[in-house]
Each structure stands twice: as structure tokens, then as C-alpha cells.
Amino acid sequence: MTTEIKTTKVDQIINSLQMEFGEEKIEPLLKVSNRWLERYPEGTVSEWIAAMVLETISFVAEDETYWTFVASRIYLHEVYSHEEAQRGEKVYANFAGHVENLVERGLYSSVLTEKYSKEELVELGKIIEPERDKFFTYIGLKTFMDRYVAVDYNTKPVELPQERWLVIAMTLMQDETEDRLAKIAESYWATSNLYMTVATPTLSNAGKPHGQLSSCFIDTVDDSLQGIYDSNTAVANLSKFGGGIGVYMGKVRSRGSAIRGFEGASSGVLPWIKQLNNTAVSVDQLGQRQGAIAVYLDVFHKDIFTFLDLKLNNGDERMRAHDIFTGVCLPDLYMEQVEKRGDWHLFDPHEVREVMGYSLEDFYDEERGNGSFRQKYEECVNNPELSRETVPAIELMKRILRSQLETGTPFMFYRDEVNRANANKHEGMIYSSNLCSEIAQNMSATEFESVTLEDDIVVTRSKPGDFVVCNLSSINLGRAVPANVLERLIKIQVRMLDNVIELNKIPVVQAARTNSRYRGIGLGTFGWHHLLALKNIQWESDEAVDLADKLYEQIAYLTISASMELSKEKGAYPLFEGSDWQTGHYFDYKGYDSAEWNELRAEVAENGMRNGYLMAVAPNSSTSVIAGSTASIDPIFKPFFHEEKRDYKLPTVAPDLDHNTYDIYRRSAYIVDQRWSVKQNAARQRHIDQAISFNIYVPNTIRASVLLDLHIQAWRSGMKTTYYTRSSATDIEECEWCHS
Questions:
Q1: Catalytic residue list contains 438
Q2: Which domain holds residue 326?
Q3: Set 380, 436, 735, 738: catalytic member
Q4: Which of 463, 482, 500 is where one domain is finished?
Q5: Is 434 among the catalytic positions?
Q6: Annotated catalytic residue: which of 417, 438, 540, 553?
Q7: Which residues pair with 246 in a beta bridge?
Q8: Which tens digit of pLDDT belongs to each residue from 391-412?
Q9: I want to staple 364 with a disulfide (CB 3.0 to 4.6 A). Which of 297, 419, 456, 682 is the partner?
Q10: Do 161 and 254 reside in the same domain of the chain?
């Protein structure tokens, strides 16, 4: 291609930008255009465009926020030019041919041509809206193209953004029997307008020949050698396909426990956690990223001190496991003892089973201050046959806080509140959460029974436990709420999530079984700080707390209603009978007693629920970037910052940042009073049947008593979990509350 042709193409791009944004705003581009030729005389148009983006955006003023969209348009020209060269035709001109071509090349699943006729593919191609590519910010589009679209065997993109959205919709709606194309159109409308995003595995894998669609899994490890190794194998198989894993180790005997009657033989949970650590590192999802595993342990387990030191950066490396994440499971009674500065007793779960005939972790307090856990705990404390380690409860909490300030973990899991709010307590117990601390569903260990040789085939028999599966998607509050589309959106969103359950090919049979028994989904949100900015509501205000309460009650109502309507159409989840949904106790516990809620309660009792678990707010860091909003329910880090990747560094700004929204964004994550964040989240948690990935942001100079007060406030206010305790020593100003 001659220099003249390349110059003409670049001029065409500049002209189109001038038409969209105005001549004055595109002035900075012209300042650098004359340098492109001398700097890149042999460069391709793509290289010129890349130079144009990076050089121009590097000196644009931070408050000129439109530049992220200018850069996005320029990059879009590059994407389109590449695809047109590969396809030999205009982009978005032949969706049916595109699908058939990628299926033939093995880059799309054959399902797309087996379940859709040529005529249907042609019809579906007509609903594509290329203009919606312009909704992306530059970093959103770059992230989307780099990580999620289909690629060829040389990892070059072969798919455009609107094709990805439509293929996801086609994949999730493939088995719908009525008005299938209309449902696909609704699903495409929801995602292509960036009103919602599907979870990363669905975003990455839907319509492709490999990978599964669910985000996270939670296993309960049985206290046996076979159970431990079987669990590790299951974790490896799920991690291979991109799943994040939560592992509850509370049933595994502690260090010094007996094995087959031989006292002191057990090495405790440490070696098995180190084994999981090695699995996380080794099973690296085709080299894309390491596996991600969070391990949870009860605060009354004898190995808790060793567990809390796992990720510390000093001490004996043989006692460390740096690549896993940790979570601690806390009963109300322990938090009460921390407040009272009382003693706390640590037990070996194996010894408790042997001596007491039950497992302490199988109980919870059915009411605040009263219940079966504290009764069983006191029985253990008063039994002289049981060995125990007794420590001041506050000293154990100090170790938790020390670990959090140094490593960000452990996550906190308030087990009594989780189980009190469990809508399916008639069928089991929730011991812990997942990798991101937002999932709370029934769990139990898979128990090995026998291995036999039958017809020259080795047959392993096990009693399956509840191996939790998390199917996630999230509402973009910054776009969906202002557009007033929640009712329309949530209806299609719940259907999309429910269909993931049918379509998933989970490589662990007990996980597939649990998925079909409870049909659990996790409808969440992101863009909370974005929404506050648009509404001009300060983070540290009763108005923000009130909005959280009312908005999430509306989301809860619409989500429950959508699942109930789907149950009328497709049937209730198998364990609905006897659940708190069916008895109405769920609505009592939440305090839902308006006429509207009572009407829905009656409809649920009559028609059932399609899904046993419904709502969970995940971190959404990657998908919120794609959607051009703020992550989860978190405050932003800064109004202005630089996004740094391996080959570029770009100035980035908060969404819709201008003179109206700056004051809301100004007090960012490490500055806002975290006590207000807890208040907001407690209001939100009341309406979420599972849990919320809630980060605490503090400087590492925070007084221990202030951090402890935050945790006590979170527990007392009815929160179920907290996620990372994120601490920073830099860029902290105006943090009066940290020292109060």
C-alpha cells in the first residue's frame, strides 16, 4: 500500500471524527499527523492508527473525557479494516456466512449451524446494530477485543463485538421452544446496549467449541485421604476450563489428630492446602492465567493460626501457600467473645465427631444470641474428654487483622447470618463461600464408598455431595437505571442465567447434579458509584443508603417475579417443596409485608420458583471495564488514573466525569468513610438472598481498633461476608475517619 493511499485512509478517519465530535475537538490529532509519515514511513495503516491513538491521547487534558470515545472510534477503524481484509467484504454484511465459515474452521461450535437454519441465521443477522460498537470506551473495546472475541489458531480476532453479543444470545436461547428468535433479540438488546453483562466464562466461551459457562464452584472436602485427593482432582478439572474455586476445609482433621487410632499422626490441613496451591499454579487455563482457589476454615478449628499465616511474606516458607486465597468462617458467638474480650476454644473436628457424635460445623444459631451452634459449642467446651486449645478471642482477631493488612485476606464469612437467611435450609447447610465471597448455597462433601472391577472396567462409587455452581450476570446500574429498563431487562436476564444451567457441560458430575437440583443463579450489579454520580448523591450520605435500600428491593422483587414466571413455564426447581420460598418464611425474614409483596408471595407458593438461589453481587472488575462503568458496589480509586498494560499506558477517567459528577467521584475508595460503605451494603444485603463481594478500603496505617470496629459493624448490621481488606500506604488524603 502506497504512502498516498495510507495518508488518504487516515484522512478519512479524521474527517469522520470531525463530523461526529466537531473540528475543534479533533484539533489535537492534526498536531501529530505530520509526524506520522516521517516516524512510520514503512508502517501499515494499523500501525499509524496505533501511533495516532497513543501519541494523541498521551497529551490530551484529563478533563477532556470525550477522548476515550475518539480513541475508541480510531481503534474501531483498525478492527474493521482488519476484518474486512480477512473476509473480503464489509463488516456485518453477512452474518450467516460468517457463522458458517467459523463453524467450518472449528472456531465456533457446530451447535450454531445444527440448531439454526440458514434462513434463521440470515434473519438474526438483521437485528445487529453496528452503531452500538460506539458505546465502548477505548479501554472497554480494547479489553473486549483482546480477551473475549473468537480468535483463530494464531490468536488473531475473527469476530466483531456485535457478533459476540449475538452469538452469546443464540447460544443461551438455542433450546427455547417458543418465540426463540424474539428471545434472542431481547438478549442481544440487553447485552449490546451494555445494560448488562454476562459472566466472564459465558462472555469468553459461549458459541465456541471449548470451555464451560459458569463462573465459580465450591467444594466441601471430606475428611478422608480419598476425599481429599478426589476433591483436588475435581478442582483441577474445573480450573482447567476457567472456573474459580472455593474450597471448605473445615471437616478435615487438624494437626496432631489421630489417624486409625494412632495419636498425633495427622499433619492437619496445611499439606492439603499446599497441594491446592500447586494445583492453582499448575492448571493455568491454557497458559492464559493461573487457577484461582479460595480456601475457607472455621475460626474454631485447631489449625486456624497456621491457616491465618499461610499468605504472610515472612516466616517459614514451608508453612506458606502464597497462591491461594483464604477465608475464615465466623459464628456470632465468636464475635460476641471478641467484643467481651472473652476466651475462645479451638477443636479438632475429627475428635469432636468421635467423642461427641456430631460435627460442630453442622450447626448454626437460628436466632441472634440463641441457637444450636452455641449449645453444641458449650457442650464441647464442657466435655473434659475433648482436647482443645484456649486463646483470648481478641488475640485470634488480631491475627486476622494482621493478615488482612499484609495480604488482603482472609475474607470474612458470617456463617450464622448466612444460614439463617438460607432459603433452602430444609435441604442442607452452607459452610463457606466461593472465590469472591458472593455465593451462599447448600454444600456437602462427596463421600467415597468403593472401587470395583466390573467387566474389566474400574468403577468408583461415591455418595455425591452438593458441589456448588455459580451462574452469574450483572446489571449495569449506570446505564440500565437511567434508561428505566429494569423490568424488561431482568426478565430476559433471569432466562439467560437459567439456560446456562441446561447448557453447561460441567466436568464434575456432582457439580452438575447440584446445579440441576437447586438451579442456582446469581444476578448481580455493577456501576453503583457511577449511578450515584449521575444522580448527584454523595457516597457518605443517608440518601445513598436509602437509594441502596429501595433500588435493591426493586431488583429483588423483579428477580423473584421473573423466576416465578419462569417456573410457571418450565417448572420449579426440584427442591422447592419445603423451602422458605414455598412456606413464605423467606418473605417474613426479609420483612416484606406490603400488598405488592404479599401478592408475589402467594404467587410463589402457588407456582413455584425456577431457581433456588437468585441474587449475588460479584466483583465485576473486567466486565465493568467493558461496559464503561464502575466495578460492583465499590467506590472508584481515583477520578483520573492511568491504565497500564504490558505495551501501553493510557489516561483513564471515571465514567461520565464532568463538572457535575466530579464532586461525587472526588472522595474515592481510600478516602470515603468506610462506615458509610458498610451502611450502604447492609441496606443492600437485606434484599440479596446470597451475598456481596464487599471490599474494605483502608490505609495500612489504620488503627487496629478502627478496623475491628468496621468488622463488628458489618457483622452486627447483618452482612454475610466481606471480601478483600485493601490497604494502601500511598495517595491517602483527607482520611479523618481512619483515626477516629
A1: yes
A2: 216-463
A3: 436
A4: 463
A5: yes
A6: 438
A7: 218, 294
A8: 999 999 999 999 999 999 999 9
A9: 419
A10: no
